[in-house]
Specification:
Layout (H helix, E strand, L loop, with lengths): L3 E8 L2 H9 L4 H7 L1 E4 L1 H7 L6 E6 L2 E9 L8 E5 L2 H4 L15 E9 L8 H11 L1
């Protein structure tokens, strides 16, 4: 499977806010937050189309999310995951005395994950707690 080195950015999105209105355990929230926006040229480089699953891996962890064509193109080499539990799985938990973890500029790698499942919130939290 082709892998691509990228830079991860996390942040708020309109979809995330809308999903929260349905509750964090709702499918609507998962649909809007368990996603990774990827430049269309990068989707081509790793051989997937919008809507297929990708594994995002950083020094801090990995998570499977739905890879979607970015709404903010062009920005090859940069991916975006909305703030939430799926983004939290791959960001540095340390705040370095600021009270806020680093949410932007995180070196990452993406790869197709067609056979892997995007975990629901309960499964993701359970997995995270097991891994410590």
């Amino acid at each position: 499977m082709p892998k691509l080195k990228v830079v991860l950015i996390t942040g708020r999105s309109i979809g995330q806010g809308q999903g929260k209105e349905y509750g964090k355990f709702s499918e609507k929230y998962k649909e809007n937050v368990a996603v990774c926006e990827i430049d269309s040229s990068d989707l081509t480089k790793i051989g997937i189309t919008s809507g297929q699953h990708v594994k995002v891996t950083t020094y801090h962890g990995s998570v499977v999310v739905k890879g979607v064509k970015s709404t903010q193109e062009p920005h090859p080499g940069i991916i975006f995951i909305p703030c939430g539990p799926w983004a939290n799985a791959v960001i540095c938990p340390k705040t370095h005395g600021t009270g806020m973890p680093s949410l932007k500029g995180i070196p990452a790698e993406i790869e197709p994950a067609p056979e892997e499942k995007v975990l629901g919130l309960r499964e993701l939290v359970t997995q995270t707690l097991r891994e410590g």
